[in-house]
Amino acid sequence: MKDVIEDDSEYSGDMYVLLMVENKTSENITITDVYDSLAVNGYMMDSIISPVNIKGGSSAIMKIQLWQSDLEKNSIEDISDISQVEIGIQVMQGDYIIEETKLDMSI
User: Fold this and answer.
1) Number of domains making up the chain
2) What's the CA gap between 1 and 60, in Å, rounded?
3) Average pLDDT over residues 58-67
4) What is the C-alpha to C-alpha distance for residues 27 and 86, in angstroms, rounded to an integer?
5) What is the pLDDT of residue 7?
6) Could you tell me if 82 and 90 are in contact, meaning their C-beta atoms sit under 8 angstroms apart?
7) Which domain does 30 fall in, by range?
8) CATH number at residue 97
9) Which of 3, 13, 31, 56 is 20 to 30 Å from 76 by CA-CA measure?
């Protein structure tokens, strides 16, 4: 599941991509982004993404913050202007990367 929402603060024009991440293993994992891998509508962007720790057999929401300045620079003014998001994701167990993949999402 994925969604894009606007910041509800009147002082921010940031947007957030929300991803539901499910851990189908019995082990605890951490999901994080690959540095400098986010593209929205084909434009590379900076973002804030906190690592998400997920216990075995559970799920969590990964929140990708899109900065207002990057959105404006790329003529994205509204959620409806976002049609594609690409990001590199790392799945870690402890200090070890166990999988790395690229997500390409149509919104």
Assistant:
1) 1
2) 11
3) 94
4) 27
5) 75
6) no
7) 2-106
8) 2.60.40
9) 31
Token pair recorded at residue 47 = 């973002």
End-to-end CA distance of the chain: 11
What lies within 8 Å, CB to CB, of 29 at 6+ separation is 23, 53, 54, 56, 91, 92, 93, 98
Nearest Cα residue to 4 out of 102, 76, 89, 100 = 76
On the question of pLDDT at 1 being above 90, the answer is no
- Report yes or no: 102 and 89 within 8 Å, Cβ to Cβ: yes
**Which residues have a Cβ under 8 Å from the Cβ of 19 and sit 6 or more positions away?**
1, 2, 61, 62, 64, 103
What's the pLDDT tens digit per position in 2-27? 678 877 776 788 899 999 999 999 99
